[in-house]
Design brief:
The complex is a heterotrimer of chains A (795), B (294) and C (162). Chain B is α+β, with helices and mostly antiparallel strands and 294 residues long. Chain B has helices spanning 14-24, 37-42, 78-83, 85-90, 92-98, 104-109, 112-118, 124-131, 230-236, 243-250, 253-256, 267-293; strands at residues 7-10, 28-31, 50-53, 63-65, 69-73, 135-140, 143-148, 153-155, 158-159, 166-173, 181-188, 198-206, 212-220, 227-228. Chain B has a 5-stranded antiparallel beta sheet with strand order 4-5-10-6-7. Chain B has a 4-stranded antiparallel beta sheet with strand order 11-12-13-14, with helices on both faces. A 3-stranded parallel beta sheet of chain B has the order 1-3-2, covered by helices on one side. The relative contact order of chain B is 0.12. A 5-stranded mixed beta sheet of chain C has the order 2-1-5-3-4, with helices on both faces. Chain C has 5 helices and 5 strands; from the N terminus they run ββαβββαααα. The chains are: A alpha+beta (795), B alpha+beta (294), C alpha+beta (162). Chains A and C meet through helix 1 and helix 18 of A and helix 2, helix 3, helix 4 and helix 5 of C.
Chain lengths: 795, 294, 162
Amino acid sequence: MTSNLHYISKKRRVKEDKRFVSGTGKYIQDVVLPNTKHAAVLQSPYPNARILSIEKAAAEAIAGVQIVLTGEELAEHIDPIRLGLKLPEVKWYPLAVGTARYVGEWVAIVVADNPYLAEDALELIEVDYEPLEPIMDPEEAFEEKSRLVHPGHGSNVLYHGHFTWGEVEDDFAMADDCLSFRARWGRSSTVPIETFGALASWDEGTEILDLWASIQMPNFVELLSSTLRFPLNNVRLHQDVDVGGSYGVKRGIKHSVLVGYLCRKLRVPVRLIEDRLVNMSSGDAHGPDRIFDTNVAFNKDGIIKSLKIRVLDDAGAYPGRGPHQLAKPISAIVGPYKINSVDYEAISVTTNKTGQVPVRGFGQAPTNFMIETAVDKVARHLGMDRLEIRRRNLIKHDEFPYEIPSGTKYDSGDYHAVLDKVIDKAKYDELVKRRDTARKNGKWAGIGVTTCLEPSGGNNIFEYLMEPGAEITTYMEGCEVRVDPHGKITGIMGTTTSGQGHETLFATILGEDLEFDPDDIRILHADSLNGPPTRSPVASRMAIMLGSSAAGAAQKIKDRAMKIAAFNLGHPIEDLEYSEGNVFLRGDPGQKLTWQEICFIAHRSYHKLPAGMDPGFHAENVFQVPGGGKLPDEKNRVQIYPCFSFQAHIPYVEIDPGTCKVEILDYVVGHDCGTVINPDIVRGMMIGGIAHGIGAALFEKFSYAPDGQFLTSTFADYLMPSVYEMPPVQEVEHCTPSPLTSHGQKGSGEGGYLGAPAAISSAINDALAPLGKSIHELPMRINKIHELIMTESET
Amino acid sequence: MKPAPFEYTLAETVEEVVALLDDSEGDAVIIAGGQTLMPMMALRMARPEMVVDINGIEDLAGIIEDADEVIIKACTRQTTALESAIVAGRIPLLAKAIAFVGHQQTRNRGTVGGSLSLGDPASEIPLAALTMNAHVTLQSVKGVRTVPIGEFFLGPMMTACESNELMVSVHFPCWPNSERIGTSFHEVNERHGDFAIVAAAAQIHLDDKGICTGAAVAIGGAHDRPIRVPGLEAKLLENKIDKEVIQLALQEISKAIEPFDDQHASADYRRRTAQTLAERAITDAVADAQAGLQ
Amino acid sequence: MSKLEIAVTVNGKKVSGTVEPRMSLLDFLRSEIGLTGTHMGCEHGVCGACSILLDDVPVRSCLMLAVQANNHSVTTVEGLCNDDGSTGELQDAFRDAHGMQCGYCTPGMLISAHALLEANKDPSVDDIKEAIGGNLCRCTGYIQIIESIQLAATRKVEAGSS
């Protein structure tokens, strides 16, 4: 498969790494404009409170303070930020208007000469609050009639959808048995080391609002400009800012609206960089916070027939696009299994917590956790080996493309082959012996088994499923390729990068297809005014979308070169061959045009161009997502994401019975993401994703006290894995190319995060099984495990 | 997360420091390693009017060994103590404890005295000092006084050091016949390098017949301050320490501690884990001592 | 609040500044000296992205006051480059083993790794973990960072012996 490739799938340096190791990456905090002022935000200490008055005169009187802005003033000049769902009575402004709805909500913003002074000024602002009773528990919020986060909305339910695909009741009636369970995914997030920041500058002469931001968000500029009541083509988002990690969360819309508004009002550039306290409590970067109640119908032979899933998600006070994370997993709602039917009830509620944001996987990681819990429980119930039950239920390699009950077709895969490879690599039988020996020596030891999918490519038609409305079926990625008069190639992409190596991806594909060294190819990030159309690097889509777009543009470049050569050599194109930019007559290589000659003709010798060809040497290409372009049918079935990568995880854990501390001692993972463009990048996504997953499984949670106080504002309370918490990871690869993409590539950006929490839960439950205990709530902290073993058993 | 404004002085002598502390009546604080003070100031939970930097006072750093004790000047970096041959040879329990303190960057700035002055009930250096019956020397405008470590920790983050006093040194007595001494330090935390949830330290001396003639066992994170467990130590003394002896001795722990609930762990967890870690510390210390006998 | 004059040797060059006592060394390096390679991640001493060498020893620059660096020497990630700005051997090892993704924690990792390799020619995996245990990364899962440091160590030994 990869034998004819020169650059794709070869170990090559990642272009971006040079500037990162030199300390010359350009992150938002590094963007310097003269005369920039600095903003700091005042946060609500209450989870729910009316704002009676804000006294800002003392703060504004400090020398060096430009302004203190409140929500009331801001609301006169901007529209509320549009949410993902149509919720007209849920009004979201960057600064609280009338009511603060979570601890940390921004109630005022100060702009001053420097960040130190801005923080000093915050302390002089006096706010008079009338505390109200908060609603913190999502199940209570669902039922609650009087404590409403947004009284105008009439309830705390933001969304309540119910889908039935296939004959669920029949399947349950006819199955040999069924079981039910609850699984809880704790409120965590991917928390990048760099916080969100935005810098805005208004140029009265050109009437352009320039914005730099640490951003990863589709349709960001549209949302920003409409909120500011500003024409879209007056805003220029600079997308060559290096983003210090995002993994979904850097949406910063309220930050950007604020600096966008303030820089025009003050006529100076304004910069807002979250400090860590603000980031954790009120950066709107919390992830899914879910309760799954699931019923599984299955037969004695382990075949799982049907799933009934009810999921309740706590979207916080201002839900943004959080609730859509309930619908994306519909694209793989049965996981990698041949489950016949699914009933899916999805509920999003609002509470007095920070708003939820898209997090790596957009809801797939919690859903995979729930599905894998179901499979393990059925296995345990039947006394069946967890590998065996998966073997029986996994879609077989000759069944692709495989259509799941909700209408998505999985493009390709060989799940059994990957699983076998992982079992082999893990030396599974020896691992079982190791576990059993450890148990004899007093440890609680367990092996985890998880098989799951990474839907990739991005096709947000699930939004239409949630709320039929605007008929949006275009999910595209554009690029431009330019060849300069000297023959050097430049690729132009239309969005930001946050560590995924897009410049390398793009250059590698151009280099492969045009047969030039990717190291000689320059990649630029265009801004939002001059850049190609984009849907941003979300949904594990860029290898598929930017990659295929690039391949299409490369083909157009090649075509142009061939046409010029055909015209000038006087031979039909079919008789010509392309090699490293040179074009020659097949069988008589002496008759050729070199790449340099073709470039010169293209740019400079109009008389040598075929009739009708414009001068120049460039191509644009916009690639629409494969399988997209359709609306759901009357049974709510539709192709969501196009490509499906597969993962199998086998971790080994030991729990110290004396301290209840979990150690992950070994980890074997197998993955199949089709053609790998850059092996080091893909490996990084798998391993880095596993690290994120370890955090979600064992440590990470944004905690609130029952009275609504926020308990995890710092890294001393919100614990993320260090190198010590990372086990050695062995990987195996497999490649079933996608038939839908330019080179067979699928997505790998969400990586190990989609399976690791499920796998670690599987391992810990295996470890606790001899004690008759089980745990299905993440994170599985030391204290939780201790509580579990101390209470009476109930599996 | 920028601190509130303050004045700053780089002190040249201890006398200068204590005079400033005395004059300020609590509005001045010293900065040594800064690993605790700086985050507190960033959170604006600490808002001193003046910060007195003691890092420039040469007299305040260093490790000196004496016939009976090792003296560590208060502003000695934790890394220095960790890597010190004197500490390794004469008071190895301290090095074992420091290995658990934060990470290398923390230890490169953090000081021995700074950790003691903080008085965190779960922290490692106070626990080791308590186990070893150290005493601290405090200086003020009134002069110098010595406080035995057993009287130094008064409660969570509360020590006998007054706001106008500066800790200048810590004295660690050395038990004789070091080849028969075994030490061990155990702790549990969510992640390596985190604050301990619970910790236990043990120092055991065996005579040439393997009988315990010296025992010091202390527990951190299970009470409002680090504590020794004299009842437990008494049950080890004059015994050949085996599993049975240890189990009997461990029963003394629950009487001695009043653990608390917090968001990291429940009181129940701390109670149970104190037992577990004490058992491991004693067992390992005994093995360490026996290795010395061979 | 009175400002103070300080003189610090940064990457071998003497620089001076006039700073408020409360200004952190991190902010001084970034905003006064313009060396933006050292990064701010948490400002409370946990993430390690701000790590620099103070007199050749890794410390968290967010936990030091700028005034405390007066008359001391500081090395930042920029100082690990060669004089002509090209990447040094440790940095090249990180490129070859792709010991990063977004690059934000990378300067701190390089500082910790540099100090390790100066002191220890043949670090074990445990030695490496101890060196970078206080540097958090959210992208890589650390394994490629460990491999980068191992690669650098191997090359250093080979260069030394050739």
